[in-house]
């Protein structure tokens, strides 16, 4: 494990930074426990007219090594009784983590 | 000639009243400047805003024919991406049905004409909730004495 990977593992394990979640690959299989770092920024969406929209984007950072296979669009992530569908996957340049853009499924 | 209610305000107020009475399940706001929060604001929601005001003095002697342009922005959300787009289409169709071709009873106000619309489904990296908006443009005929754009 590299220093950067160890640093990410420490951050994810920190109870103030990381959260327990469950992962389910779109390809199938059982739910798998994972640690994630969540962010819910409020995004201002450029509007078509003078009145724009504001929405909550939900993003999760996850260690790539914690998953049996690379995350993909359509995978599911569940925490706090809410299930999210993975819409976007952005790996970091070192391939250690992925930032996932999530959409609520209900 | 002077008055107390500008023709433009009379037109926009009549439109708002029409929308409120025909579409009771939809929240209507006039002239909102703050962004609509699709996570916390009640949806579906319509925002009515007055736009351009064009005058034509060549139609009738002593009278000016105004063209009041206005826009209605509609916001909707749903459980899935497809359902959000369908909700936008439904809200837009209800809006057009309510306004296009309608003539207010207020003296001086004429037909409403549909001009067109743009639609936008929010990207997933901006909104975890499937949601979007449309911007529908309309125009209304308003007629008043030249130099006196008053409804009353």
Envelope shape of chain A: globular
Helix/strand/pairing category of chain A: mainly beta
- Total strand count of chain B, please? 6
- The helicity of chain A comes to 10-25%
| Amino-to-carboxy terminus distance of chain B | 10 Å
How are the strands of the largest sheet of chain A arranged?
A: 1-2-5-8-7-6
CATH class of chain A: Mainly Beta
Rounded to an integer in angstroms, the radius of gyration calculated over CA atoms of chain A is: 15 Å
According to CATH, the fold-level topology of chain A is Thrombin, subunit H
Largest sheet of chain A: 6 strands, antiparallel, barrel
Q: Please give the count of helices of chain A.
A: 1
Q: If helices are DSSP runs of H or I spanning 4 or more residues, what is the number of helices of chain B?
A: 2
- Name the CATH architecture of chain A: Beta Barrel
The number of strands of chain A is 8
The tally of structural domains of chain B comes to 1
Q: Secondary-structure element sequence of chain A?
A: HEEEEEEEE
CATH class of chain B: Alpha Beta
Q: What is the beta-strand fraction of chain A?
A: over 45%
Silhouette of chain B: elongated
In a nutshell, what does this entry contain?
The complex is a heterodimer of chains A (106) and B (152). Chain A is mostly beta strands.
């Amino acid at each position: 494990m590299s220093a950067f990977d160890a640093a990410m593992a420490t951050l994810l394990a920190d109870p103030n930074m990381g959260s327990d979640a469950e992962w389910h690959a779109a390809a199938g299989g059982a739910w798998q426990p994972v640690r994630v770092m969540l962010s819910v920024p409020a995004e201002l969406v450029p509007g078509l007219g003078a009145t724009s929209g504001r929405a909550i984007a939900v993003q999760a950072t996850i260690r790539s090594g914690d998953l049996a296979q690379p995350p993909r669009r359509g995978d599911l992530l569940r925490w706090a009784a809410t299930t999210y569908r993975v819409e976007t996957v952005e790996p970091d340049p070192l391939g250690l983590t992925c930032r996932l853009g999530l959409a609520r499924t209900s | 000639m002077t008055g107390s209610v500008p023709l433009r305000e009379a037109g926009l107020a009549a439109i708002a009243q029409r929308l409120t009475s025909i579409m009771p399940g939809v929240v209507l706001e006039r002239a909102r400047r703050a962004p609509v929060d699709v996570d916390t604001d009640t949806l579906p929601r319509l925002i009515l805003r007055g736009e351009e005001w064009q005058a034509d003095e060549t139609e009738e002697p002593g009278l000016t024919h105004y063209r009041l342009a206005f826009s209605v922005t509609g916001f909707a959300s749903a459980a899935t991406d497809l359902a959000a787009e369908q909700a936008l289409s439904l809200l837009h169709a209800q809006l057009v049905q309510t306004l296009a071709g309608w003539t207010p009873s207020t003296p001086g106000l004429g037909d409403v004409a549909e001009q067109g619309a743009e639609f936008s489904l929010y990207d997933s990296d901006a909104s975890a909730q499937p949601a979007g908006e449309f911007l529908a443009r309309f125009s209304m005929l308003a007629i008043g004495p030249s130099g006196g754009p008053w409804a009353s």
